[in-house]
Amino acid sequence: MAEDTKLWLKPISRRKFLTLSAAAAGGAAALTTLSWGKKVDAVSNSGSQDEGVKIVPTSGSHNCGGRCIVKAHVKDGVIVRITTDDAPDTEARPQLRACLRCRSYRNRLYHPDRLKYPMKRVGKRGEGKFQRISWDEAITTIAEQTKRIMQQYGPEAIYVHYASGNAGKVAERVWMQRLLGLYGGYLNYYGTYSTAQTQYATPYTYGTINTGNSREDWVNSKLIILWGWNPTETIHGTNTMYYLRRAKEAGAKIIVIDPRYTDTVIGLADEWIPIRPTTDNALMDAMAYVMITENLHDQAFLDKYCLGFDEEHMPPGIPPGNSYKSYILGLGDDKTPKTPEWAEAITGVPRNTIIKLAREYATMKPAALLQGWGPQRQAYGEQFVRGGTVLAAITGNVGISGGWASGAGYQARTQKIGSIPIKNPCKASISCFIWPDAIKRGKGMGAADGVQGVERLSANIKLIFNLAGNTLINQHSDCNATAQLLQDESLVEFIVVSEQFMTPSAKFADILLPADNYMERDDIVTPWGFGDYLLFMNKAVDTVFECRNGYDWVTDLADKLGLKEQFTEGRTLEDWLRYIVDETRKNHPEFPTYEEFKQKGYYQWQYPEPAIAFKKQIEDPVNNPFPTPSGKIEIFSERLWKMNNPKEIPAIPKYVPSWEGPQDPLREKYPLQCITPHYRRRSHSTFDNVPWMEEVAPQVVWINPIDAEARGIKDGDKVKVFNDRGAMILPAKVTPRIMPGVVSVPQGAWWSPDANGVDQRGCANVITKYHPTPLAHGNPQHTNLVQVVKA
Fold it and tell me: Cα–Cα distances in Å, from 300 out to 24, 179, 309, 348?
């Protein structure tokens, strides 16, 4: 396509788009509810259909949590309009309706700042100065550096960075891992930035992360507690709000525990309980105290299915006073009963509210405690995860319809979807969050540092492939320190980035490659944990300029490494997509053929009844033990006990005061707790440069009127949010929708420091601390103390 081609034609007007966004944000529903969606479709489909328009079914592959049907209306090779699912809308199959992010996608696809050509760095790393080169020069350079670093340092020096901007089954990251696996290997990672503590800690209670009932079972709950979960904005599974609304209409009471009065509170909640960040376990402990002292706990369930609740059900050899009940009642080492009064002083939740919440959760059975992933992204987030699992067990809400085992929260049923075969001969693996340590001191790092698969790492990270990701800088803790780390070319010697825009991470590339867009390629995409369906992403338009698909350029790299035949196996990209479908059909014979799947654009499984996690274990525990060492729900974990770190990794879940929490003496200097939640206008950092989404939801810091008045701040004022790690300038939103003592900066804004290093965009990670959590070695980015002043 010529560079001067006019890509913007018309259709949905900016005014109409903003009208729809206002309806979504107003709280009457959310981005995925049925009533709002019908209005969207009515507006989108009004008027006559243009002649010569082809409608192409596709989906989004960015990391939003939802997977929706997107329909690209293409005329003369240009997308002129975007609509969404218009299939019959039924309870059995609610529409997979796109939110405003994908509806605004032409604003991103045809953005004038798209990267167009391969480039090499000509300035200092991180300056963003590049020179255009040919694809052959780019691939030759990458091949030479890969050969050199593999020969000099070995596979543990090569790292395919954590990246989620392209979550398709045939994403660039997948191809690079396949190629490097054939070439000798690469350093693996485990966990995610979103769910590290959840994934790691849940198995210590249940032996698995597959702990949640399917969403259609929520309609059977009498009480639903959304603890730090805001599905209206995070879109954690397409149609999640629909299923929660069904539960509410069926009579379920919905309580939201969150420092912010979120859109989910507005649209769903019967009650909002604000809580100080990082103190969730104190509230959980006090709830357990009320249940135990008022004899509301399910002792029969605990006796039959659980290990470690009381002294009568402990593993042999454990000294007295270490059971969960002893801790709660103050009979353990700390001699402190975990009373509602004790918790009120820590959490800010009134004692009467705590008592009422505990009684309701214990008696309104079945009840579902649904933990969000935000509260586990703090200094001791593993405790939040395990604390929720214990409350579910204490109340006997595990393995029953309408209940919820808590913890990871993935649905109980899964499908076996085909994938591109990857074999990595390198066994070493690190937590995805600790790659800066592997750069600075990787050689010699071991199990205590979060290394798995080998006793010690043999090398520091020297080569990074950052493919469709902004975690290299923007989404990682402490942007300023991370930038200094990556600027040192004696540490990481070569960085390859494939991107669509000059993101903050792209500026740190040595070779920068222009990637195609999801509207410009075929792919297959799956939803997150929720959703029994698969989507085919049909290519809607041709790729522009010299942007290329990952399979194409990684194949060229394979050729220069002498591995093209092994890498491709003679297959085209379409052949590999057929392979994925064929592998899926081996596990699911009912799955459609490749041609049928591609034409329709999606396939959805139908089940006669909801899936209930641990139903077999509860109904027949003798023949179906829990997949833990004891075969029981382990409230007390002997595995954690043997780690011998009771202050940070206790064997039972406890409230552990957080560094930079409300009890940290640092509050004298930085008195406000800052959280960094997800935002409706972005998928992490994707869409931050889309003008329409900026108008939908500008980047602002929420601050309570009490805190604002004390600082002379009025709504709309430019303010400075800062601590010892960095500072940012952004407008203030003065609102009672956030509790006093807490401020909120949405994560994902692109890091944009001025000449003095002060961020001008509102990038939350200029103030977050790089301090991995003790057990999962994961992300603690909701653990921050700051000050806010008028700029």
Answer: 46, 54, 12, 33
pLDDT, one tens digit per residue, over 383-394 is 999 999 999 999
Distance CA 705, CA 715 (A): 9
- Does the pLDDT at position 32 exceed 80? no
What distances in angstroms separate CA 782 from CA 77, 379, 380, 591, 673, one per listed residue? 44, 8, 11, 41, 9
Q: Phi first, then psi: what are they for 527, rounded to 5°? A: -75, 175
How is domain 119-191+434-518+554-587 classified at the architecture level of CATH? 3-Layer(aba) Sandwich (3.40)
Q: What is the three-class DSSP state of 604?
A: strand
CA gap 178, 703 in Å, rounded: 47
Residue type, position 556, single letter = D
Sequence letter at residue 230: N
The class (CATH top level) of 197-413+619-641 is alpha beta
* pLDDT tens-digit readout, 47-90: 345 789 999 999 988 888 778 999 999 999 999 999 999 999 88
CB distance 412 to 758 below 8 Å? no
Architecture of domain 665-790: Beta Barrel (2.40)
Return the structure tokens found at 330. Answer: 């103050």
Query: For the sheet containing 533-537, what is the strand order?
Result: 523-525, 533-537, 602-604
How far apart CA 184 and CA 350 sit, in angstroms, is: 58
Please give the structure tokens belonging to residue 433. Answer: 């969050």
Is 665-790 in the same CATH topology as 119-191+434-518+554-587? no
Domain segments of the chain as ranges: 119-191+434-518+554-587, 197-413+619-641, 665-790
- Whole-model pTM: value is 0.93
Whole-angstrom distance, CA of residue 702 vs CA of residue 742: 8
386 burial (CB, 10 Å; 0-12 / 13-18 / 19+) is buried
Smallest Cα–Cα separation from 784: which of 709, 733, 726, 734?
726
Name, in order, each residue with C-beta under 8 angstroms of 778's C-beta and a sequence gap of 6 or more. 191, 193, 196, 197, 200, 377, 381, 431, 433, 772
CB 354 within 8 A of CB 290: yes
Tokens of 705: 């009127």
Q: Which residue type, as a one-letter code, is found at position 546?
A: E
